[in-house]
Specification:
With about 400 residues, the protein is an alpha/beta fold. It has one domain: 3-Layer(aba) Sandwich (Rossmann fold), CATH 3.40.50.1440. It has 14 helices and ten strands. Strands 1-2-5-7-10-8-9-6 form an eight-stranded mixed β-sheet, with helices on both faces. The longest helix has 25 residues. Keywords: Cytoplasm, Cytoskeleton, GTP-binding, Microtubule, Nucleotide-binding.
């Protein structure tokens, strides 16, 4: 999905947040947010039927996390009835990439666009050695926890993505020896394109942002999704064959194709949405979705019947005859939050690096509240993972007895 940036609706500044959430949210970002909102208003006013907003940002740094969540809260205040949809790049697990993969990576330069502030480019050298970590920001757990605290309250749909999962797809599935940020961004862009397909094209069965939210979010706080795409191809690749609907279905439910570092097999799906593109039979799509649920019933909660939403658009992506986008609301996403929470607690217990945040006007209580909210979120996912239809029945009976009394 290529985006042309129009100068009239582009905002750039000269400062940065220095990997500090507080700088992005309370000081540097707060000075810029009103100017950014003016640009947002101009775009919103030009819409005939504004459906919502879509924000792509990272949670590990200072700008995307701090200013990003500030912008989300301001937009939510001004447009409370519009859908807020984010593609949030989560901190990677800091797991070391396999030595065999690292040895394939020769010295090369990556250009990273610094989004949100000055239109400068940084050059980063990656050395080929036996231990390479995707993530290198020490205070990521602080920034991510403070951000999730905001996202829980102010977004309707959050698509969780992390760079390590994207690297794994590049190495293991696409067989790329030296993946660049362009390759990683390509994977994210095809997913973003798939999610917004029904807004841009007509189809046999449509699912816009609001329909997705209604069908995907059974409880208001549990709106963090994992996403996938099939068929996965590298940028500019012409070596592909047309896949059948069963093959697309198998690929998009494959744990190896998920763009977040958590395994759906470790949890259960509350809801799923699939968006197919290309010429295909609706009957065949429905049969495949039913087949997946029947064969893998233990991975779907039984107390939400028919919890797979399907959309079909006749127009395929450029270069493909058929494709499918996967969106899953799985309790396994708690793995991601648990990992961040453990890292947060380890540092916060010693008050490490805290002075950088309190120096920008933050209070320790904000950290405590964010940590508590993250732990509550994990508990809620675990609660619904363990819930059964029988539990629900007992709960209903108790309610009925209480009402009678």
């Amino acid at each position: 999905m290529q985006v042309a940036y129009i100068c009239a609706v582009t905002f750039a500044g000269q400062s940065g947040a220095g990997n500090n959430w507080a700088k992005g949210h309370y000081t540097e970002g707060a000075e810029l947010v009103d100017s950014v909102l003016d640009v947002v208003r101009k775009e919103a006013e030009s819409c005939d039927c504004l459906q919502g907003f879509q924000l792509a940002h990272s949670l590990g740094g200072g700008t995307g996390s701090g200013m990003g969540t500030l912008l989300i809260s301001k937009i939510r205040e001004e447009y409370p009835d519009r859908i807020m949809n984010t593609f949030s790049v989560m901190p990677s697990p800091k797991r070391e990439i396999e030595e065999s993969q690292c040895l394939k990576m020769r010295k090369f330069f990556l250009c990273i666009d610094v989004v949100g502030f000055a239109p400068r480019r940084q050059k980063v050298r990656i050395q080929a050695h036996s231990k390479l970590q995707v993530s290198d920001t020490v205070v990521e757990p602080y920034n991510a926890t403070l951000s999730v605290h905001q996202l829980v309250e102010n977004t309707d749909e959050t698509y969780c993505i992390d760079n390590e999962a994207l690297y794994d797809i590049c190495f293991r599935t696409l067989k790329l020896t030296t993946p660049t940020y362009g390759d990683l961004n390509h994977l994210v862009s095809v997913t973003m394109s798939g999610v917004t397909t029904c807004l841009r094209f007509t189809g046999q069965l449509n699912a816009d942002l609001r329909k997705l939210a209604v069908n995907m979010v059974p409880f208001p706080r549990l709106h963090f999704f994992m996403s996938g795409f099939a068929p996965l191809t590298s940028r500019g690749s012409q070596q592909y064959r047309a896949l059948t609907v069963p093959e697309l279905t198998q690929q998009m439910f494959d744990a190896k194709n998920m763009m977040a570092a958590c395994d759906p097999r470790h949890g259960r799906y509350l809801t799923v949405a699939t968006i197919f593109r290309g010429r295909m039979s609706m009957k065949e799509v429905d049969e495949q979705m039913l087949n997946v649920q029947n064969k893998n019933s233990s991975y779907f909660v039984e107390w939400i019947p028919n919890n797979v939403k399907t959309a079909v658009c006749d127009i395929p992506p450029r270069g493909l005859k058929m494709s499918a986008t996967f969106i899953g609301n799985s309790t396994a996403i708690q793995e991601l939050f648990k990992r961040i929470s453990e890292q947060f607690t380890a540092m916060f217990r010693r008050k490490a690096f805290l002075h950088w945040y309190t120096g920008e006007g933050m209070d320790e209580m904000e950290f405590t509240e964010a940590e508590s909210n993250m732990n509550d979120l994990v508990s809620e996912y675990q609660q619904y993972q363990e819930a059964t239809a029988d539990d629900e029945g007992e709960f209903d009976d108790e309610d009925a007895l209480a009402d009678t009394a």
